[in-house]
Design a protein that fits this description.
The chain is an alpha+beta fold. The protein has one domain. The strands form two sheets. Strands 1-5-6-7-2 form a five-stranded antiparallel sheet. It is elongated, with a radius of gyration of 20 Å.
């Protein structure tokens, strides 16, 4: 596992990627996430139709209960998503990261600098783990609860657009690059004798 707590002497910063300061980039990511969410809804409706028009007081109560539970699950998912990032930060770096909420985003950050593969593992761990877990739950719950769980899955998959893009982007950087993620800004370091590669 490649991980440093102090920047090696033969490395220098080559770029900094900010999700909050680069408004254009942030807008593109949000639009892509919205497009993914719409696509997932439209495709799943072909196989599992939904009807949110209750016909009785019992059904109204059921919709209310499901809606309330969905809100709780979404909140829990956000926490658990960042927890998975944190667990893999701990596994790879040996130290727990920091958790917080800033500029409308929940985040897990670390002072450590990770190698390219290690950074990708940390970035994609939540979408893979929760994608599998939610997929299994979706197959086990009663039909009437399918969409409640699936909405959380949509948030999982569409919300990972930024992580997936960053995975693609870091693959274009020098193989021995190091990445430091403070939650919203990512600093990239490379060996002083290496090309910086293409811009992200």
């Amino acid at each position: 596992m490649i991980c440093f707590h102090i920047l090696p002497e033969n490395y220098q910063q080559i770029k900094k990627i900010s999700f909050t300061k680069d408004k254009k980039f942030s807008t593109y990511i949000n639009l892509a996430a919205f497009a993914v969410a719409v696509f997932l809804v439209l495709v799943m409706r072909i196989f599992v139709p939904f009807d949110f028009s209750p016909n009785s007081s019992d059904e109204v109560a059921g919709v209310f209960i499901k809606s309330a539970l969905l809100c709780v699950m979404i909140f829990a998912y956000i926490i658990l998503h960042e927890a998975v990032h944190g667990i893999f930060i701990r596994i790879i770096s040996g130290k727990w990261g920091k958790f917080g909420f800033r500029s409308g985003f929940a985040y897990a950050s670390s002072e450590a600098m990770f190698g390219r593969l290690e950074y990708i593992i940390i970035a994609l761990a939540p979408i893979v783990i929760w994608g599998i877990v939610l997929g299994i739950v979706n197959m086990l719950v009663p039909f009437g609860w399918f969409w409640v769980i699936y909405v959380v899955q949509i948030i999982n998959l569409s919300g990972a657009v930024g992580d997936v893009y960053m995975t693609y982007a870091v693959m274009k950087l020098p193989k021995e690059s190091l990445f430091k993620d403070d939650g919203l800004d990512i600093t990239v370091y490379a060996k002083t004798n290496e090309s910086v590669g293409e811009e992200i």
